[in-house]
Amino acid sequence: MNAYALRVDDAPDAVPPAFGRPPTVAGLLGGQRLWYEAASLMRDPVWHGKGVPDGGGMPVLLVPGFLAGDPSLRTMRRWLRARDYWTCTSQIRFNVDCTRLSVDRLERRLVEFTDKMGRPTAIIGQSRGGTLAKLVAMRRPDRVSGIFTLGSPNLDPMAINRLLERQVKLVAALGEAGVPGMFREDCIHGDCAEEVRQMLAQPFPPGVRYVAVYSRTDGVVNWKACLDPAAEHVEVRSSHVGMALNPTIYRVLGAHLGELAAEGRRQSIRLV
After folding, report:
1. Minimal CA–CA distance to 213: which of 268, 147, 139, 114?
2. Residue 2 located in a structural domain
3. pLDDT at 3 over 70
4. Interstrand relation of 144-150 and 209-215 (parallel, antiparallel or unpaired)
5. Model pLDDT, residue 33
6. Residue 267's pLDDT band (boundaries 50, 70, 90)?
């Protein structure tokens, strides 16, 4: 177990500080922390690659969170490219569509990217993006070397605070009204939601690395819902929206991606 790891059984009973507070206060605190985390990243040596292994051209697919699109991970993508990783966007502009449809599209994107690269890819998914990453990895383990979920409630996608729950219900209402590209009520409580829960509960492919990053100070997602027994758990101190900008997470990703990249190089050497 590395310095960041924590087993499910080690987690004490607790909930994020924002749970039980008025949603407006939680949102305000999260917004303030986001800017602090972004500024901290720019000042941190990890931003310039200090102590971060070289990626050696390993492919990485990035998947944004709920209500977000590919631009939300632009900073992380820039950092990965500077570390010699080949990055690919999910082509998600606004992550609010039906989960099943989103996984179908992400699978096609995965196949297209790995065909081009000629090797499996790692997937980094933030929040809902990590749920999509797990689902597509379970469909196509032959195409995925590992997944890294950032604040993803894969044990219960609705383990969220009241503010986000209201936003989820608003999206569902718009979908029910016929607005294209938005999930509907069925995706929250109906057959679609039940199918997704059953898929998430299926055994995870043993040959695919799974690292779940979580924060007890998340404030949006109940951190216990991120502790998937199939994953290696990595605890950080971060806001939910700031996970794509938190310097500690960049160090975690750098170390674990570096291990995957080294494994890929060794496999390539044995194949020659």
Report:
1. 147
2. no
3. no
4. parallel
5. 74
6. low
**pLDDT confidence of residue 11:** 38
- Domain assignment present for residue 113? The answer is yes
- Go through the chain and tell me how many residues it has: 272
Among 89, 86, 96, CA closest to 74: 89
Q: Which residues of 131-156 are buried (b: 16+ CB within 10 A; e: fewer)?
A: bbbbbbbbbbeebbbbbbbbbbbbbe
Domain of residue 84, CATH code? 3.40.50.1820
Residue 139 clears pLDDT 50, i.e. is over it: yes
- Could you give the number of structural domains in the chain? 1
The Cα diameter of the chain in Å comes to: 60
pLDDT higher than threshold 70 for residue 269: no
CB 38 within 8 A of CB 242: yes
Domain with 263 in it: 8-271
Give tens-digit pLDDT for 41-63: 999 999 999 999 999 999 999 99
Phi first, then psi: give them for residue 60, nearest 5 degrees. -140, 125
The answer to whether residues 197 and 3 touch, using CB atoms and an 8 Å cutoff, is: no
| Measured distance CA(222)–CA(227) in Å, rounded | 10
- Whether the predicted pLDDT of 205 surpasses 60: yes
